[in-house]
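Hi Prof. W.,

I finally got the Enoyl reductase (ER) domain-containing protein prediction working! I wasn't sure whether to trim anything, so I left the full sequence exactly as given:
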Amino acid sequence: MEALVCRKLGDPTIPPDSSQDSPLTLSKSYPIPKLTSPTSVRVRIKATSLNYATYLQVLGKYQEKSDPPFVVGSDYSGVVESVGSDVTKFKVGDRVCSSTGEGSFAQFMVAEEYQLFGVPEGCDLVAAAAIPLAYGTSYQALVHRSNLKSGQVLLVLGASGGVGLAAVQIGKICGAIVIAVARGSEKVEFLKSVGADHVVDLSNGGIIESVRAFLRTKKLKGVDVLYDPVGGKVTKESLKVLNWSAQILIIGFASGEVPLIPANIALVKNWTIHGFYWGNYEALKPGVIEESSKELLSWMAKGLITIHIHHSYKLQEAHLAFSDIKDRKVIGKVMITFDDPKNITSSRL
Ligand SMILES: NC(=O)c1ccc[n+]([C@@H]2O[C@H](COP(=O)([O-])OP(=O)(O)OC[C@H]3O[C@@H](n4cnc5c(N)ncnc54)[C@H](OP(=O)(O)O)[C@@H]3O)[C@@H](O)[C@H]2O)c1
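And this is what came out:
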C-alpha cells in the first residue's frame, strides 16, 4: 500500500524524497497492516485530516515524541475492509472515522472496534475525518470542562484554524456570544459567515480595544470563557478582557510561545484555568471520546456543524498541506484524500 513515512525528524514542508533533507518518504509498497486481535478492524482510508500536532510531531517538537521511521497521521475516515472474528459493532462496508497517534497517512489502518465511530447517513465521509480530534477537542473543552452556557461570552483565539473554527461552531450551538480572533480579511469574512458575533482582525491591531468596543455596544462586562490554542502575546492581551470568575481553556501553543498566567491575578479575579489534553482521554477516559464523537457526528448529520475543507491534497502532495499549516493559510481543515478502490490497481497495494 501507499504510505507517507517519516524517516527522520525535520521540516515536512520539504517534498518527500526530494533531497537528503526531506524527513518524509512516500512508500508505494508499505506492508498492509494485519488485524491485531479478534476485535480489531481494518479500514480502507478515504481521508485523513492534517492537525498542527502532526506538523510538530515530524519537526520533533511535539510533547509526545515518535521515533522514526513511522507513518504520519492522526484523524481519519474510511470504509471497513475486514473485521476480526469477535467484532460485533461493524461489518465490511461500514463507514467509520477515528483518530490515532500516528499511521493514517496510508491506504489502510487497523484499529480496535471501540476506537472506531460509525459515520451516519447524511455525513460526508471526507469531512468526517476532521471530527474526532479537532472537533472532539473543542467539544470536550467547551462542553465538559468549561460547561459553556447560553448567553456567556466566549473568546476564541486562532479561530480560523482546525480546533478554533470547531470552537466557534460549538460555541454558537451552546448559545454563547462568540468573539473570534484571526488574521486577515479573508478569515474575518469567513468567521462572520459562520456566525461569529464579532471578529478581531489581528492584522489591524490588538485584541483589547476591539473586544472592549464590542462588549460596550452589547452592554456586556467581559469574557466568560477563553479558548486558547495559540499562546504568546494574544493570550496575554486576552487576559485583560476576562470577567471575574472567567474560565481559561489551555489548548495549545501555535504561536510557539507558552504563555504565563499570573497566579496573583487569577486569585483576585477568581479565574479557573483548565489544562486540556485530548490525547490522554483514550487511555484515561475512553467513554468520553466515544460520547463526544457520536454527538458531533449526529450534529454533522443534522447540519448543525459543517467542516470547512480548505483544500484536499493527494498523499504525494502532503508537503503542500504541511506548508498551508505552517504558513497560517488554512481556514478550517486541510485534508489528504485517497482514491476509491476501483481506481487503485492491485500492484499499488
Ligand atoms: N490540547 C489538545 O488536546 C489539542 C488538540 C488539538 C490541537 N491542539 C493544539 O492546538 C493548536 C492549534 O491546532 P490546529 O490543528 O487547530 O492548528 P491550525 O489549524 O494550524 O490553527 C492554528 C491557528 O493558530 C493561529 N496562529 C497564531 N500564531 C501562529 C503561528 N505563529 N503559527 C501558526 N499558527 C498561528 C493561526 O491563525 P491566524 O493566522 O489567523 O492567527 C492558525 O489558524 C496547536 O498548538 C495544537 O497542537 C491541542
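The mean pLDDT is 95. Does that look reasonable to you?

Thanks,
D.
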